[in-house]
Automatic annotation (TrEMBL):
GO molecular function, one term: glycosylceramidase activity
Keyword Ligase: no
Organism of derivation: Esox lucius
SUPFAM superfamilies: (Trans)glycosidases
Family listed: Belongs to the glycosyl hydrolase 1 family.
Gene: GBA3
Entry keyword Hydrolase: yes
Protein name: Glucosidase, beta, acid 3 (gene/pseudogene)
GO biological process: carbohydrate metabolic process; glycosylceramide catabolic process
Annotated keywords: Glycosidase, Hydrolase
Active site: E373 (nucleophile)
GO CC terms: cytosol; membrane
């Protein structure tokens, strides 16, 4: 049984579904720039220029949402569609009208929007000024967030400031495989993560002081995390490495917000130690200023994106250079007994979500939790009768139910990734997570429900009926 008013949702992101990359006054984002460089940065040089054309076919998306029986829909707004140069000096009213229509249509269908302000698509104009490596980004993001609260907050009651800052920092600024494609191991990622936390905190404080009393909403940031267990449960080294792995991923952002207002001690001490070994003048992990708004307590709920699990072992002997892996001295691997869905990194481990939820309860002061992304990928030929994905949704939602009923985790909602097959970042259109298949070869981008979409709709209907009957 799920609690009353449990959020049954699906999620999307603006760059991945909207298309219309330069339509109606929209400015370019870093993903526009990254994709347009070509050269294999994205699978077969795919881009989000058109993708699902949701900017044109929003009504078709709404039909999909209604067909599933969703109570909630998580979407992101495109910063550069609203503010083409990233600042409030120039507001694109056509972008405002588009999102007003989306929000109003959802509410008219009794679907609650959860709106993400930043899902990887920084306006290129801001990247040209240093992007997330610039400390000024905290104030710029706060101004953008306040614009959105002021414009849409009379109707939007669930806000996500930032999606997966870990991914933005590591994949975008250490590995260089996501936009903006920067490779500065051990330096840029920590700076980006720091500025994103500062930006989130400022936006939360602005909402709390200026909008909460009148609008009555809630604000958080969406953190991605694997579940992690030691390769050898009897090895103290592997156990310690597992703790470091979680500290350098989930803890990096959750610890400052939910526990102490600062980074995990093991993270700070190891980066300081490695910085001295590398003769860095300063620790590469910045310190939070006491003159700025506090990071601690700046989340009204815990928003979790979970996809997979890992086995972790201790590794050493990485003195050359610096980087997250050498700072944490831990290597994460896929257990060979776990099935893999579509892509090599995505092992299917439903009970890992339950374990992670229990860890969050115990580690981060028993917060209310929304699972804001979770899904199962498909590659190769399109299989509409996707039996494996059907089984996945049955299994994963059972694990969420166990976390609620047996472990006492305060889970408030579950959002499947994704409503639609879409542009999956560096994987382009090769990887499909949708509850609806999108025919990208057709001008109208026809949406067709997968068997798993019908399965998910049935799960929602069943649990909602049980909840209604118990009241």
């Amino acid at each position: 049984m799920f609690p009353p008013k449990f959020a049954w949702g699906a999620a999307t992101a603006a760059y991945q579904i909207e298309g219309g990359w330069d339509s109606d006054g929209k400015g370019p984002s870093i993903w526009d720039t990254f994709c347009h460089k070509g050269g294999g940065l994205v699978y077969e040089d795919h881009s989000g220029d058109v993708t699902c054309s949701s900017y044109v076919f929003w009504e078709e998306d709404l039909k999909c949402i209604q067909q599933l029986g969703l109570t909630h829909y998580r979407l992101s707004v495109s910063w550069s569609r609203l503010l083409p140069d990233g600042t409030t000096k120039h507001v694109n009213q056509k972008g405002v009208r588009y999102y007003n229509k989306v929000i109003d249509d959802l509410l008219a269908s009794n679907v609650m929007p959860m709106v993400t302000l930043y899902h990887f698509d920084l306006p290129q104009a801001l990247q040209d000024q240093g992007g997330w490596t610039s400390p000024e980004m905290a104030d710029i993001f706060d101004s953008y967030a306040c614009f959105c609260f002021q414009t849409f907050g009379d109707r939007v009651k669930l806000w996500i400031t930032l999606n997966e800052p870990y991914v933005c920092a590591k994949l975008g600024h250490e590995d260089g495989i996501f936009a903006p494609g920067i490779k500065e191991p051990g330096i840029a990622a920590y700076l980006v993560g720091h500025n994103m936390l500062r930006a989130h905190a400022r936006a939360w404080h602005s909402y709390h002081s200026m909008y909460r009393a009148k609008q009555g909403g809630a604000v958080s940031l969406a953190l991605n995390s694997d579940w992690a267990e030691p390769v050898n449960p009897a090895s103290p080294d592997d156990i310690a490495a597992t703790e470091r792995y979680l500290a350098f991923s989930l803890g990096w952002f959750a610890w400052p917000v939910f526990v102490t207002g600062d980074y995990p001690e093991v993270m700070r001490s190891r980066v300081e130690l490695r910085s001295k070994e590398l003769s860095c003048q300063d620790c590469r992990l910045p310190a939070f200023s006491k003159d700025e708004p506090s990071i601690l307590g700046t989340a009204d709920f815990f928003a979790l994106n979970y996809y997979t699990s890992r086995r972790v072992k201790a590794v050493g002997g990485l003195p050359e250079g610096c980087g997250l892996k050498s700072d944490q001295d831990a290597e994460a691997v896929v257990d060979p007994t776990w099935p893999v869905c579509g892509v090599s990194w995505l092992a299917v481990v439903p009970d890992g979500l339950r374990k992670l939820l229990k860890y969050i309860k115990d580690t981060f002061n028993n917060p209310a939790v929304y699972i804001t992304e979770n899904g199962f990928s498909q590659v190769g030929p399109v299989v509409m009768d996707d039996v494996q994905r059907c089984g996945f949704y049955q299994d994963i939602i059972q694990e969420v139910a166990k976390a609620i009923q047996e472990d006492g985790v305060d889970v408030r909602g579950y959002f499947a990734w994704s409503l639609l097959d879409n542009f999956e970042w560096a994987d382009g259109f090769r990887v499909r997570f949708g509850l609806f298949h999108v025919d990208f070869a057709q001008p109208e981008k026809t949406r067709t429900i997968y068997r798993s979409g019908r399965e998910y709709a049935g799960i929602i209907s069943k649990y909602q009926s049980q909840t209604n009957n118990s009241q």
